[in-house]
Structures are given as C-alpha cells and as structure tokens.
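TICKET #2291
ISSUE: user wants both folds in one file
ATTACHMENT 1:
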Amino acid sequence: MNSRAKGVRGELQVAHLFQKSGYKAERGQQHDGRSGHADVVGVPYIWIEVKRDQDLNVLKAIEQAERDSAGYYERTREDLLPVVIHRKNREEWKCTMRLLDLLSLSGSMPFAVAVPTDGLVTMTWSDWIRVYMAYETERSGA
C-alpha cells in the first residue's frame, strides 16, 4: 500500500475515534483542502499528528508535531498541545506526548517539581481519551 493512502486511512480512523467520543473531528486536509492544519482537527486544545508506521521514531514525530503546532500558533495565536496518535499494523492506537503536557492535561502538575521536558509518555487510546475528556470538560466549564 502506498504510504500516502495509508496515512489518509490512519487520519480517517483517528477522526472516527474522536467522533465516537462526541467530537466533530475530521481530517485537517479535508477541513480546508490545504496544509497548515493538524492531521485531525475539531478537537479543542490539541494538535494531532497521526502516524501509521511499523518503525516509528516517536521522538521525531513529537518534534514534528511541536514544530507544526508552533507554526500554527504563529499564524493564529491558538496554543495547542501536540500529541502523536500512532499504531503499527494490527495493533491498537496509542497516544504519545511530552510528560509536562500530559501533566497539564491531567491537572496534577505540581509547580515546585522539576520534570525533564524531553520525557515522553505513551499510553493506549482508551486511557488517553479519558484523561483528555476530563481536561476538556473542566477547561470548557461544561
């Protein structure tokens, strides 16, 4: 399968996961027909990078998401937390983000504690979406 088609399918699958959780998610390219958006849009506060790769370098993927979300911030002043949602063939979806970003989502960031900023955390989709939904509900005041 060519990698572009595999990428599109992955983005559609992730958008569907968010839709099943109640979000109006869609592919970023589909959103306006051009680049400059996350791979999946319609999820508040999050920059989503989707990867389907057997040999994924997660650190490089996070760095790409950080660069792209920083560029988006420069254009829009909307600050989004970068997350990479990824899977290998026949495995479940996983979510990886910086530890500091995850702690800001979970609401358990003690300001007096120094945490290495290069620390990455990977968790299953089901665990991550529970943390994210609690954060989003609290932040939106719903």
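ATTACHMENT 2:
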Amino acid sequence: MKGSAALLALAMLPLAGLAAAWRQAGPGYPWSFPRDHWSHPEYRIEWWYLTGTLADSRSPARHFGYQLTFFRIGLLPEERGLDSLWSSGHLLMGHAALGDFSAGRHRFSDLLYRETPLLAGFGRFPDPRLVWSRAPAGTDAIWDLRWNGEGFDFRARDDERRMAFDLTTRPTKPLVFQGPEGASRKGAGDAAASLYYSFTRLRTSGSLTLDGHTTPVQGESWMDREFSTSRLKPDQVGWDWFALRLRDGRDLMLYRLRRKDGETEFRSATLVSPRGEATYLSEDQWSIRATASWKSQATGTVYPSGWQLELPSESLRLTIIPWMQDQENIGRRSADLRYWEGAVLLRGPDGSHVGEGYVELTGYGANNRPPV
C-alpha cells in the first residue's frame, strides 16, 4: 500500500538530532545468550532472517524453499510516553516466501505494522515470543517467531496468496559470529558496522500449505541475526549475500556491497568448519563472479543468475545454480521494493551436487535502492 511505503520511507529519513541518539554497532558488545535473540530497541534497525530448503516427508523428491524475515525499524530512539495504545516508536515489517520447485512457482507475502498491542510487537526476555504481528489484511492469523529453548519456532500465513508454513528448528551446530566479536564491517568508518551472528545449520520440520493442501516437510535452515544503526553509504546501491551449506559439513557466508557502477565497494566472508569454528577470510582469499543473468517478466529487473565461487586455500571451487529462476520478491504492502531471494544448488568441478543454500540480491534495476 502506498501509505505503508510512505511510512517506511519516513522512518528511513536521517531526522535531525535523532541519528546520534541511537547506539552504534561495533567491537566490544557484551553478548549474552539467549537474551540477544530478543530485540535491541537502542539500535535503529534489526532483523531475524530465516531461509531454508525442505523436502516433502512423504515424497522426498519434491523440494521447497522458504524465507521468513521480521524487521524492526526504529522511529524514535526513546519512548515518548504518550497515553495511547497507538503510540509507537517502532515499525515491524514482515516478509515471507515459499518456492515450490516441482511446480515452478514462487509466492511472496509482506506486511508493515506499527508496534502496538493490537497489531505487532517485540517480546521481552524471557517471554518465548520474540516477534509477532497480525497477518496481512484479509487473513485471520498471526505471524510469529519464538525461542523454543534450543532453536526457533515460527509460522506465517497469507490466505490471498494461498500459502502458509508452520516450522520448528533445532541447531546441529553452535551459533557463529560473523566477524570478530560479532562486529561485521560494512565499509570504512567506525559507524559502518552491524552486530551479526548466525545459526548456519538448523534441523527443520513442520508443514507447508499451498492452495489448501498441507504437506509435512523436513530439511535444513539458516538463521541470520543483525542489529545496527548504520545504513548504506550514498554510493552503495545494494548487496549480494550468500549463505551456503556444503555436504562435507562446512558453511560459507559471504557478501559484497555494490556501488552505482556495479563494482564492489566492500566485501566480507566467513568460513565455518564442521565443528562450528569460524575463519574470517581476507579479500584475496576468495573470489566470486556471475556467470549468467535473468530478466524478470514482472518488473523488467535483470539479476545475476548463476555464479562461480573459488576459495583456493580450501581447494574449493563451486558452481552456484538457482533451483529455479523466478524467485523474485515484489513488495506490495510493506514498501515499493523488489529483490531476488532464492534457494540455490552447489555443484563441484565434476558437476556433482555438493550442497545448497540461499542467495539475496538487492538494489538491482532503476530506483530500487533498499530502504534499510
């Protein structure tokens, strides 16, 4: 809705006198778990980001991909204490997607609410509910994310899009910091950083519902957690982000921030061992290049579609291939945005299947810079 998009755009403005009041992300943060799975209202923005690949428990050859993201976007760094249930210092934006690879269909749902008792909220430790919101208008349901003591339980539903999922997860590897002490650099300058950790492997089970048919599923997920106050620099237009799980037990997170001319402004990568130990890779240790492209019929946006990744120190050379081309998310209710968020297959030099993962591509096409 245009009103929702305008509200989100207003939240992203660098309002005079407010930017300095938010806490800045950087080294030395005193991590405490499980407390840090909950919200951090002293930072301007944060998200809980879950993606995964699933298979039909009864017909394992049928595969799916899913995404669920909750964003908290700060409006005011301090509560104003207004005596009204409609008073709010934060927005909640939710994105959910399901890809049915056998049918070749991708569905996306989004929402945007103020944090109020009737619409959406962020839990307070130790309440198991981390985040919740009403479903999109026309759907009598709740979207939420909960801490189950080991991992995360979550659900989302959109009756208009005829999609829903209800999933539970348990980690098979410990959480890992994406950067020393969890401080993830996003460029030069002290403020260009986020506090970032991941669960790279979450055993996942539950159900998906598509067009009224419910399917029991099982598979594996990746959970990213970030909070910060920084935004993209003026010359940065978006990012390419990769979360890759290899069948030999290793995991890779890497991203590059792009300039307006398409060149890389900043990039970072983490290699996670089968035991969960992180190695932070220097820029000269890895390379990635796009090998193909895909043009969206819905928006006309051209995205990379297929990549070659090389990590010589690990004797690693991967071909990254989308499960299906059209995994574009097009915002309708939360903001006027479009981005590609899709499941991918990993193949080795001999063409064998060596893993899977998810890729996110933002800022492609004209006037499509991410609002966060």
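RESOLUTION: both attachments delivered.
EXTRA DETAIL ON ATTACHMENT 2: The CA atoms of residues 55 and 259 lie 37 Å apart.
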